[in-house]
Specification:
By secondary structure, the chain is α+β, with helices and mostly antiparallel strands. It has 6 helices and 7 strands, in the order H-E-H-H-H-E-E-E-H-E-H-E-E. The chain has a single domain, classed as Gcn5-related N-acetyltransferase (GNAT) (Aminopeptidase, 3-Layer(aba) Sandwich). It is 30% helix and 28% strand. Strands 1-2-3-4-5-7-6 form a 7-stranded mixed sheet. It is globular, with a radius of gyration of 15 Å. It binds coenzyme A (COA).
């Protein structure tokens, strides 16, 4: 892959479908394992797998985006009008209750960029798509439970910290940061 050439190729986006699930799972596996290395220990990365990964509810809801460059899967991420703030299909404590756009913050969910496509604006593009979609449904605020790897992206896109969190449901405590932005 030629990075200079790829930098000039536009990023395409579309909604994810169930047929994307195997490729999305493999991309997430790579992003979780590689891109958290500067921020977490190996034990914390292993533990984070309990609270990260694919939430197929987002695909069913039509709120999960895929970004491709030249036909290659570059990243994915989405938003939700449901209460669950973070986690995968297998994570504990899920809550599918619908949020109230007038009073609740929409959720940004499950953002992952393939390690071969980082720092090309994939994450930023997905956040813009999520915020526009949430705004169009009447939400005025958006929240995310940021990983340490995700925090720089969210800060760069205007999200501000609300609460430090530690999640030890997978073993080693994983530091997280709840963040929010006005839409
Ligand atoms: C978080 C993640 C999705 C960011 O993806 P990305 O496509 O590389 O992000 P972008 O290229 O859109 O970055 C936009 C801006 O965010 C900031 N940023 C993103 N990643 C950064 C990093 N590792 N270090 C410092 N700043 C970073 C920069 O300001 C960047 O702009 P710049 O490249 O012009 O300096 C990716 O690192 C990832 O998949 N991490 C592992 C999974 C994860 O933890 N996801 C978050 C769940 S909450």
């Amino acid at each position: 892959m030629d990075p200079m050439k790829n930098a000039e190729i536009p990023l395409d986006h579309r909604l994810a479908t169930p047929a994307d699930i195997p490729a999305l799972a493999s991309l997430m596996n790579a992003a979780i394992g590689e891109l958290q290395k500067p921020f977490l220990t190996e034990e914390q990365i292993a533990s984070s797998r309990t609270i990260m990964g694919l939430d197929s509810r987002l695909i069913d809801d039509g709120t999960y985006f895929v970004v491709e460059q030249n036909g290659e899967l570059a990243g994915c991420g989405g938003w939700s009008r449901r209460a669950t703030l973070y986690g995968s299909d297998d994570s504990p404590g899920r809550d599918a209750a619908l949020l109230d756009p007038a009073n609740d913050a929409a959720r940004v969910r499950a953002m992952y960029t393939h390690p071969g496509f980082t720092r090309r604006g994939v994450g930023r593009l997905i956040l813009e798509l999520c915020e526009a979609a949430a705004r169009s449904e009447g939400f005025r605020r958006v929240e995310v439970m940021a990983t340490m790897s995700g925090e720089p992206l969210y800060r760069a896109c205007g999200y501000r910290p609300i609460e430090d969190v530690s999640d030890a449901s997978g073993g080693a405590p994983v530091p997280l940061l709840r963040m929010a932005k006005a839409l």
